[in-house]
Amino acid sequence: xxxxxxxxxxxxxxxxxxxxxxxxxxxxxxxxxxxxxxxxxxxxxxxxxxxxxxxxxxxxxxxxxxxxxxxxxxxxxxxxxxxxxxxxxxxxxxxxxxxxxxxxxxxxxxxxxxxxxxxxxxxxxxxxxxxxxxxxxxxxxxxxxxxxxxxxxxxxxxxxxxxxxxxxxxxxxxxxxxxxxxxxxxxxxxxxxxxxxxxxxxxxxxxxxxxxxxxxxxxxxxxxxxxxxxxxxxxxxxxxxxxxxxxxxxxxxxxxxxxxxxxxxxxxxxxxxxxxxxxxxxxxxxxxxxxx
Length: 292
Ligand SMILES: C[S@@+](CC[C@H](N)C(=O)[O-])C[C@H]1O[C@@H](n2cnc3c(N)ncnc32)[C@H](O)[C@@H]1O
Known about the structure:
Elements: H1 10-13, H2 16-24, H3 26-43, E1 53-57, H4 63-70, E2 74-79, H5 82-90, E3 96-99, E4 113-119, H6 135-149, E5 150-159, H7 165-177, E6 180-187, E7 196-203, H8 260-272
Bound molecules: S-adenosylmethionine.
The site of S-adenosylmethionine has 21 residues, from helix 4 and strand 2.
């Protein structure tokens, strides 16, 4: 099954039936609760017994937000899917939920939020679902608005499923550009099923207090059966294969792809026209692997 981000925009993918299926799966409930507990731990809120005002970005039907309520905090949930939010309201979650697209910025007052979590949602920003969508601009708007609404020194912990290194780097770059310090905490790095990445961001410059906590299992200890049981049944917690249509290889009239001689001839023509063309080498027009 391809990953959800490759199937449809989030507000379409999480329609009434998918939202209900998601929220009634006992495996999803269990996995999202476990990830949310860990995100809350990584938020490292002061242990002063005072309830905090937190954000749950991409809150869905409120599975992640419930963990915040259970720990005595107030929260505001933000999501683009009306169907997910309808279920959150139906389930009478304690947070206030808002319909909105994080890629357009959160639109909250500056400095009013004590911390933010986001569980399995931010990777959606890496996909352009409309001609007006530019993932980099959307990441910029999101991280800029997140930075502004957090109080100084507050943390945001974003658990996400990037499809590849390019996406991870792009997300990190825009977080840093917005002014955050921090990095990625990886739990269970040696388990393909249980491995989870958390972007742990602090609002403000790096300091001793902003040092990153260690990931679970970094020292080689094994994860419990419970942690290791995340499987493809949960479409947000699995290992997915690339499923975007591959670019068609250009072929000539005889149905063969253009070879090295053709590339060399074209380069020569370009040189003759006075264009700046890289020198020929043993790599010119080499065959590439199917994936790289
Ligand atoms: C896998 S669900 C996770 C829901 C919830 N955090 C949980 O743990 O159960 C991902 C959620 O991200 C939301 N989402 C995706 N893109 C979004 C966007 N641009 N703005 C707001 N929410 C978005 C989806 O609508 C969906 O509800």
